[in-house]
Amino acid sequence: MEVTGGAASISAGDRLTFQRRHGIVGKSMEIREVVDTIMQVAPTDITVLVTGESGTGKEVIAKAIHQASRRSHRKFIPVNCGAIPEGILESELFGHEKGAFTGAVETRKGYFELADGGTIFLDEIGDTPISTQVKLLRVLESGEFMRVGSSEPRHVDVRIIAATNKNLEEEVRGKRFRQDLFFRLRSVNLRLPPLRNRRGDIPLLVELFLAQMDDAGRDIMITDDGMDALIRHSWPGNVRELRNVIESVTVLERGNVVDERVIAKYIHAMEEPLEDRALPVPLGKSSEQAERELIFRMLVELKSDIAELHRMLEDLGHQRPLSLPPREEESTDAAHLEDQTLRSMEETLIEHTLERFNGNRRLAAEALDISERTLYRKIKDYGL
Ligand SMILES: Nc1ncnc2c1ncn2[C@@H]1O[C@H](COP(=O)(O)OP(=O)(O)OP(=O)(O)O)[C@@H](O)[C@H]1O
Ligand SMILES: [Mg+2]
To answer: Ligand 2 centre and the CA of 223: distance in Å?
Structure first.
């Protein structure tokens, strides 16, 4: 069955309430259809395949399906099948018995067992090695799997949502993806439109991202020609690219008025090839300046995290919550940073981010805007 259109029975009001609750912004026809389908399939246990270019909101949708399901009070476990090295993916997914392989010093549950009763989100499913695909098919069909090093079948009650930005039909033709698994996964295929096909949603998304940046303490005013420039752009990185541009403008621009010229500067900086840039900064800056600004951005984020912690602790009724340095020392003046190396800043930031996400490398990598592979490498590098 392929669910494509929305149900006529969903009222505009219900849809809007659903969108608000799950943070899905957009009023275009394309988004409305996607939302209608989610509202239909969420209460069921049906497997959903979410496809779309990078940054189109596949994870937002997957989370919304979980949140709107009867499983919402149980775990939502995201797994990036493309980032976990092939050799350990199976033991991460299905767990392993003590002694199953060198280094398996104790028995460990895999993601499927951890997600029991909840939802597992198999992200980048198109990058799963073919040897693991057959095991996924078995879980999909019967809920059964075996831990690595065990021959005892285990059973879980897990809803599966998968996502990919690859064309799975092509992967099947190229024999990189099993056809049976593909057919099983696409019971419901939600296709997310690229942002350039729903430009009407851009102003709403900009409004959302600006509101989310309020903590950074800036009142940004986007002029009409600035907004036009945002609408005209083709957004190859989709909603994520738009969010990055808005965040960079908010954090890095000195003035409050953001016009076409300012927007152009940031959009072009984003579109340099990745290896040519350490972060999205305007062109025409030295790499030293760019690094400074990267550190600024990180500090701003750290600062708002600390402020958030303060607020949380204060809410809990603590008067003097933490022995943190006095506010003045949280100044974003980069001068005192000069005796610190970028490496040590990076190490601290990675450590902090890992802590913030409870050691979840996927979420940490996402927050740091680096790939999970890169994060693995850095964790090893720094011996974290
Ligand atoms: N409809 C939407 N409303 C609000 N925010 C959105 C929407 N779609 C995407 N976003 C935001 O855009 C960013 C990227 O979304 P998400 O991570 O879900 O994309 P993705 O398709 O999983 O990307 P990738 O293929 O690179 O993993 C996130 O910050 C998300 O909050
Ligand atoms: Mg994603």
So the answer is: 31
